[in-house]
Structures are given as C-alpha cells and as structure tokens.
Design brief:
This protein has about 80 residues and is mainly alpha-helical. The protein has one domain (about 1-60). It has helices spanning about 15-35, 45-55, 75-84, and strands at about 1-5, 40-45. The protein has a two-stranded parallel ribbon. The chain starts with a strand and ends with a helix.
Length: about 80
C-alpha cells in the first residue's frame, strides 16, 4: 500500500489522529485485499505536507547545519571523545 505523503509521515499527518487511524486501517486492509505483489495507491492526499517539505528544502524552516563529509561535533569534548 502506498500513501502519497512525504517521507516520515507514512502513518498519517502529523498530530492528526483521525487521519493516522484511517491511513493505518487502509494500509492493514491491504493484507486482506492484495493477492499478489503490487504497489496499490491509497486514497489519501496531503498537499500541505509536500508544501512543508518544499519550504524546508528552501532552507527556510530547516535550521540544521549544512551537511559535509567532515565530522561535526556539538562540543570540543565530543570531538576529543570521538577521536580518542
């Protein structure tokens, strides 16, 4: 069963218990209705979730440090412990 929600929200919209329950129920129904390997789309749409991800990718909501190949440590003590 495939739900077209952003990665990390496969079991429903954030803080939306009704949507989460409906999403999980429909996913579990797949065990009874699917008889061969397949990808079956579910009946859920969440454009606001995709909009949120797109904004995060523009670096407006994502305050994390840029990713590099160099090790990054929160403190000098962490660096010493890791390299020790």
């Amino acid at each position: 069963m495939f739900v077209n929600y952003p990665l990390g929200f496969e079991s429903g919209r954030f803080k939306d218990k009704t949507d989460q329950l409906a999403t999980v129920r429909q996913a579990l129904d797949g065990f009874a209705s699917i008889t061969k390997p397949t990808i079956q789309p579910m009946d859920f749409k969440w454009q606001a979730g995709w909009d949120m991800v797109n904004e995060r990718e523009k670096n407006t909501l994502d305050s994390r440090s840029q990713r590099t190949r160099e090790p990054q440590y929160q403190t000098e003590a962490d660096r010493i412990a890791a390299e020790g």
